[in-house]
Amino acid sequence: MTAFWTGPDFDDHESVQLVHDRASGLTAILALHSTHLGPGAGGTRFWHYPDPADAMRDALRLSRGMSYKNAMAGLPMGGGKGVILADAQRRKSPEILAAFGDAIAALGGRYVCAEDVGMTEADMVAIARRTEHVTGLPSADGKAAGGDPGPFTASGIYLGIKAAVAQRLGRDSLKGVHVAVQGCGSVGGGVAKLLAGDGARLTLADIDEARAAALARQLGAEQVAAEAIMGTQCDVFSPNALGAILGDAGIARLQAPIVAGGANNQLARPEHGPALAARGILYAPDYVINAGGIIAVALEYLARRSGERCGIEQVQRRLDEIPGRLSDIWRQAEGSTRSPDQVADAMAQKLIGR
Ligand code: NAD
């Protein structure tokens, strides 16, 4: 068996902790990639992994992604990620969440927990009963930043798609621009609604077909089968489901000049960034375009720690910086032999001192 710290996903992570609590049945991984810029902030995923090695892979890759994402978003936060290994029925209990909260508390603020796939705002509230190092908690009056990061993530992606359309297609409006959206959950659904508001033409898909159908009806969009969405002829392919979809086969199927969406770790391997560029496809690096949610919950956390209040307009100002950051990356890539993901990685590594 290969030890994870000699495998390709280990990137000099500062610490990787396996947490097991026999009483509650919690098994979790807490991975801290870098605390160079501040406490390692990132979501916790609650997922069933038939092969636990995949949980470790997720924890390692996603925590590194958080270091890059937080650095590029200009946040004083490092990168961390939690993965709770759910059983096959994905049973979650108050005891599991409490034990997980205790494990975060034991890290003394080196990891700040937020919501990710399989977790909810109510879960963050439950964890907050055991530790102060959790964010994405509902705001009392709905006017301060807080709660589900999904809508903020969607908002940043929408702005990023507009920038990509201007950059690649030379169009300053989304009216009639055809976007194929993969995944109609919190992020994909939010992106689709914002795009529809600007008159974009939408094709939607989700493995939960009823979910995609309901959204398609609401927005007057077309729906295709989940297997068909990547091959849709369109202006923008927006991946908002799971990662690693941009591999050899996925890239070969694409019929869009732009890939811009919120899924984490979209590139299956590092060589797939240059492979997109070689096909003339403009790529919005995932951790730059999908930073809206962490921006919102990080500002919420920092404000709470200093006894202040973070208004939604403050978050919006930071979301508005995402398109400029992407344009800067694309400009640098154009003037070099590097692809946008390579430019972004180099910028992020410099920021975290690597
Ligand atoms: P979600 O669970 O609300 O939605 C995901 C949707 O994708 C679900 O409806 C699911 O059925 C669908 N799906 C799964 N596999 C699919 C497939 N192969 N084809 C089509 N649809 C598929 O999750 P979310 O919060 O919307 O997150 C979506 C992605 O965005 C994830 O990769 C997540 O890590 C990333 N992300 C989310 C946030 C956030 O704030 N929620 C922030 C940054 C990145």
Description of the molecule:
This protein is α/β, with parallel strands linked by helices and 354 residues long. It has two domains: 15-63 and 78-128, Rossmann fold (3-Layer(aba) Sandwich); 150-289 and 323-351, NAD(P)-binding Rossmann-like Domain (Rossmann fold), CATH 3.40.50. It is 42% helix and 16% strand. The protein contains 13 helices and eleven strands. It has helices at 52-72, 94-106, 121-128, 150-169, 186-197, 209-219, 248-253, 272-278, 286-289, 292-305, 312-319, 322-334, 340-351, and strands at residues 15-21, 26-34, 40-47, 78-85, 111-115, 178-182, 201-205, 222-223, 236-239, 258-259, 282-283. A six-stranded parallel sheet has the order 8-7-6-9-10-11, with helices on both faces. Strands 1-2-4-3-5 form a five-stranded mixed sheet, sandwiched between helices. The mean pLDDT is 96. Bound molecules: nicotinamide-adenine-dinucleotide. Nicotinamide-adenine-dinucleotide (NAD) binds at residues 116-117, 149-150, 153, 182-188, 205-208, 211, 226, 240-243, 262-264, 290, 293.
